[in-house]
């Protein structure tokens, strides 16, 4: 049973004395049969906690600076209309008490804590965002990661790997961006996809009749789950691991890439759909950066001299991580140039950077 | 001074006894010199509040069902690293205590309450979302509404009217969608824009050399603010209220529309950029629905028989409000047909519906 957590905040122009604000509010809590405990705050204003029936808890703080905050926790099964009325009563009373002194009133949508379906998937740049997920479609642990597919009303099914939102059925924009935003002609070309287990790139790419697409993804479980539940992304392309112009190899891409390098095999396009750029900005200490450099170096090695390498970056606002990635591009054994563009991927709730890299 | 509010929740497979969980946690709070008050909850588990120095407050609840929740409030100027350590210590300890019984651990980005720049602008469908706004660029009250322009790192400047996020400089997708998504040819056409004070539609439309665009917006203050601070949207088009192929009339559109009807004046395109569809689903009792019907009826009356009417709808998930709007379309004095499409407008953080309407 989830806990609903309401907040109601009054930002003021000048601090108020709790003696003039609190007494009028107490009667509202008393009407709801909530028992007050006033706490000693050592000069940080009034802090009262109010415990009621059915597990209800309210916290009223008249801070010593110009702010009044109210928290209200209740269980999901509680009488929500009654709680709304309580908040309305507090808001109305405070508007009267603080009249002329209010800079902002903020009453946010309730935070729902401990719900069956988790709706909070913070952005890569660390912001709190609530989604409209309403159903767990699939959840399993593979040898590599936790795999979840949740249903969202507006984004369709959403693939979440290790609690990181990967792709939703609504996100054709992602696939188009990592394929070069419609500027490339894949007809007759040799293409290598690293990762891509959701099948989005493969599904779009075969429409262009390349000579051969090789997709390397380590996780059969991801492929299998997406085949079943992400058909808005992959269509029927994952129904077979082999087709006229494609093959899916369920393998770790590193040894395969090393083998290609040894054999001197090259590709017209390498699309790295493995993972976003690590957010950590200490590349020396972070093994994900090391992995990224390894993949990048091997990929450029198997890239035809006139070929192109596409990959996602990360959130546009993570400028340090992106700069660091661009620094890595300057340190490859083979000199490369790059361009980047920013795309709006519907389910990401933040602007996302994509890179194109080619040999100088 | 803002209040940072952290939450840390453990969802469990089976309920736990507070006697086995709480004592081990108390020492962590005591180390931080936080004073415990245990509250009587009438069978709803353990509820302890902990008040510390610098205005710190923690709440620990071991609910009588399978959930443990922790809240931690501190001031912005507090030692954030120390608070992080406290949460880390609690999380680590709880992982040990609850080992084998944990379904989900959720530690959300801190809610920042009472900050100078408000970053929480819930979606139309009522979800809690945090933006990356970092600066108040403009704020003023007009006779009609509160006008705010905030700066966002990724969306540029964002226009907010009466606390409703209208448009960001990143949102060309909105303008393109409400102009018919590139399927229309405005060259040589007569166009009427209702609202549109941000100048986005006007700025895009003049590029297509229509015969004449008439824009009716009631608020000079909005136009003037956008001219200065939303240039990523309007370019230089608002620098003059009149140009080769456009005129901006700063007027209430209703009497002007009525005058056009009387004169028998018609337009090839009417673009209603006034407001989203009301969310309320009791149209009889809601004056915004009445206003919407009035505008719609007048707009269709001034529409050339082969003309098109474009407007925004609302969030894709507000299916009831959208259905109700479609019902209204069926009740107009002149019979119309319509189509709709869903667009991802970058700053909206939800899929948005746009309508095309034409006379049958």
Automatic annotation (TrEMBL), chains A, B:
GO terms for molecular function: spermine synthase activity. Residues 119-359 form the PABS domain. PROSITE patterns: PABS_1, PABS_2. GO terms for biological process: spermine biosynthetic process. Keywords: Acetylation, Phosphoprotein, Polyamine biosynthesis, Transferase. It is an enzyme of class 2 (transferase). The active site is at 273 (proton acceptor). It catalyses: S-adenosyl 3-(methylsulfanyl)propylamine + spermidine = spermine + S-methyl-5'-thioadenosine + H(+). Its EC number is 2.5.1.22. Pfam families: Spermine_synt_N (PF17284), Spermine_synth (PF01564), SpmSyn_N (PF17950). Pathway: Amine and polyamine biosynthesis; spermine biosynthesis; spermine from spermidine: step 1/1. InterPro entries: PABS (IPR030374), PABS_CS (IPR030373), SAM-dependent_MTases_sf (IPR029063), Spermidine_synt_N (IPR035246), Spermidine_synt_N_sf (IPR037163), Spermine_synthase_animal (IPR015576), SpmSyn_N (IPR040900). PANTHER family: SPERMINE SYNTHASE (PTHR46315:SF1). Belongs to the spermidine/spermine synthase family. Homodimer. Dimerization is mediated through the N-terminal domain and seems to be required for activity as deletion of the N-terminal domain causes complete loss of activity. This is Spermine synthase. It comes from Perca fluviatilis. The lineage of its organism: Eukaryota, Metazoa, Chordata, Craniata, Vertebrata.
